[in-house]
């Protein structure tokens, strides 16, 4: 049976305490180098990116892995809090994930009507490694809702999606949301537009992904 990779999966976010060390370790494990994405001015973080090719789907051009951590060239925020709870990382951790709904405003309205708290819709931007400005909208809550297993929504608007760049790529073999309460999680994901996500029973809330490159597999 083919793995269930959500059709509207935008990207997975791995938070790390040390960006250069994490990027080197991922390349060692998979044989695929991450490329610099850019930095988030004023937020204290930067990222590296790798494209993802979801198993069983030919349309993986808009899916990628974001490796997010403290930017060595920025001061950390005064309160020590980093976006997407990246300040909590003591090791590379699959912290959260994003879905790209076909209609952002309508999905946010439906989600709020259903009583799901996705936080505020924020305008975000960063400078790419090439010096271009990338702008997008996303839903934001801190701390992350349900410890990151509830995806945030993202809309790239007129910006070129990061995965449209010539990114090196890994195969995304498996993506699973693991929770003690499967039925409620499936209902929540259905409202968010990710009802085709694989949900499994586990003792705690966590995300799992299995990636494959020419050098080997890597599991988060």
TrEMBL record:
<feature type="domain" description="Glyoxalase-like">
    <location>
        <begin position="9"/>
        <end position="190"/>
    </location>
</feature>
<protein>
    <submittedName>
        <fullName>VOC family protein</fullName>
    </submittedName>
</protein>
<dbReference type="Pfam" id="PF13468">
    <property type="entry name" value="Glyoxalase_3"/>
</dbReference>
<dbReference type="InterPro" id="IPR025870">
    <property type="entry name" value="Glyoxalase-like_dom"/>
</dbReference>
<dbReference type="InterPro" id="IPR029068">
    <property type="entry name" value="Glyas_Bleomycin-R_OHBP_Dase"/>
</dbReference>
């Amino acid at each position: 049976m083919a793995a269930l990779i959500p059709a509207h999966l935008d990207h997975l976010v791995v938070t790390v305490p040390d960006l250069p060390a994490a990027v080197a370790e991922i390349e060692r494990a998979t044989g695929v180098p991450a490329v610099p994405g850019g930095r988030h001015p004023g937020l204290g973080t930067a990222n590296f990116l790798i494209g993802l090719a979801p198993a069983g789907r030919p349309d993986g051009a808009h899916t990628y892995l974001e490796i997010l951590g403290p930017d060595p060239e920025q001061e950390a925020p005064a309160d020590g809090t980093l976006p997407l709870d990246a300040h909590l990382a003591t090791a590379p951790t699959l912290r959260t994930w994003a879905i790209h709904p076909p209609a952002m405003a309508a999905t946010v309205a439906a989600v709020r009507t259903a009583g799901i708290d996705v936080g505020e819709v924020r305008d975000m931007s960063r400078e790419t490694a090439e010096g271009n400005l990338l702008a997008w909208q996303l839903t934001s809550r801190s701390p992350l809702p349900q410890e990151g297993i509830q995806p945030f929504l993202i809309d790239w608007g007129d910006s070129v999606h990061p995965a449209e760049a010539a990114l090196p790529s890994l195969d995304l073999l498996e993506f699973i949301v693991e929770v003690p309460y499967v039925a409620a999680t499936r209902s929540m994901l259905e409202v968010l537009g990710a009802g085709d996500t694989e949900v499994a029973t586990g003792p705690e809330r966590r995300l799992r992904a299995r990636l494959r490159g020419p050098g080997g597999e890597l599991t988060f």
